[in-house]
Amino acid sequence: SSHNPDVLKVAIEAGLCDIAMFPVGPFVDERYITETLPLAKARGVGSICFKTFGAGKLLGDTVGYNQPLQLRPRGKLSSGGVNDAVAVLPRLTVQECLHYTLTLDPDVALLGLSFPNEQDQAFAAAQMFRPLTAEAMVDIRTRAVEARQGKGPCWWNPDPEA
Question: What pLDDT score does 11 carry?
Answer without folding.
Answer: 97
